[in-house]
Amino acid sequence: MTTAIVWFRRDLRLADNPALVAAAEAHEKVIPLYIHAPDEEGEWAPGAASRWWLHHSLVALDKGLGRHRGGLQVAIARERAPTGSLEVLRQVVGETGAAAVYFNLLYDPAIRKRDAAVRKALEDDGVDVASFNANLWCDPWEIATKEDEPYRVFTPFWRNLRTRIDEREPLAEPKLHPQALKKSLPIDKLGLLPTLDWDKGFHEWTPGESGAHDMLGLFADDAVGHYSEGRDLPARHGTSRLSPHLHFGEISPPQVAQQLRAHFARRKNAPDLEPYLRQLGWREFGHHLLWHFPDTPKKNFNKKFDAFKWAKRDAHALRRWKQGKTGIPIVDAGMRELWATGWMHNRVRMLVASLLTKNLRQHWLLGEKWFWDTLVDADLANNAMGWQWVAGSGADAAPYFRIFNPVTQSEKFDPDGAYIRRWVPELRDAPGRLVHAPWEDEAFLKKSGYPKPIVDLKATREEALLAYQKSKS
Q1: Where are the beta strands (DSSP E) in 128-188?
Q2: N or C: which end of the chain has fewer CB within 10 A?
């Protein structure tokens, strides 16, 4: 009777889990193991909001394994050990006689390096190692241009990827015979939950595989039918809100696509799913970029931007931006939503990033790091791609001279100010246009207690464009 270890990481589900399925098919016993090793992720160890989600997702996975009369085995790698996970895996192999280790791939640079070292060491020990793609339609190296180069522009990348995504069918949840370890830690011992009481709003989320499918069901029942126009309206749930579930591998892109198609298979007037699938393609593009250009979380993708002169770091302005006290209503609404819920609407993410990198001319790295700590869906590939896209330094980026006007944007996408009124209570009673630009009535602004704008939007736009022109010359 053979035993295999399934090393869970960010693939916290039982269905459509290639490593788990392969292990269950080849071995009589399976040890579902999670190793907590944040040090091995370098400077991109999970932020506070991600740790909250991870805790609850691990609890949900443990509960799911209970259906198979087992549970998740939990261990902590030795701190500041370069291959602490390897030590744990070797210990478990020695304790159980496991013949193989199965895991699903991750694409973050530090984890790739760690996984390569672990694989080599285990194989040198005589342990079989098998890895799989669980969280993307295609591995990043599988898609290339006709010149066999990585893509730098999204549209041709998507055309290539779109021809492949219908081929991937999700795998069914396997029958398991989990094996327990003599020493397995309670999930609470990982210390993932915050010590400060700031996460009350997070409880609108339901981390875990079941929560992911419930969220997909809500999207299929309502928002997907109006996705093209609804996705830009922050006051309504017009997006899928699946990003944290996808990041932690509680659901896969093939599962999402299959279930949406199945939901509308018998309907005469089924909505067009392509706009939403295309957004999932952007997620895939982010991982493609991270694989081929692993410096993008820290360095400009477009090296011409190395000559751009950012403003001196402004601690006061950064603090007001983080706290949602810039005096720009749509921006403050987004930053307060982020702090309260661990999430922000994508349209608003672009607006808060534009204000920081262009009107305030603060380096995009400062925003990227704040999002990393406060987003429940903080994903290295997509966080880096998003910030560089807005800043103008990334792949297929918005040109630097495209500077979002937050007033016209909020008038267009939050016309009655419902989103602003929800998150900025000082403006709840603002009449008409004042909800978007309260500084236009000094008496109202003073009465409301809302701060004056942190910058003059027109003047700082001109200053940013001038700095860009100087960097080009």
Answers
A1: 128-132
A2: C
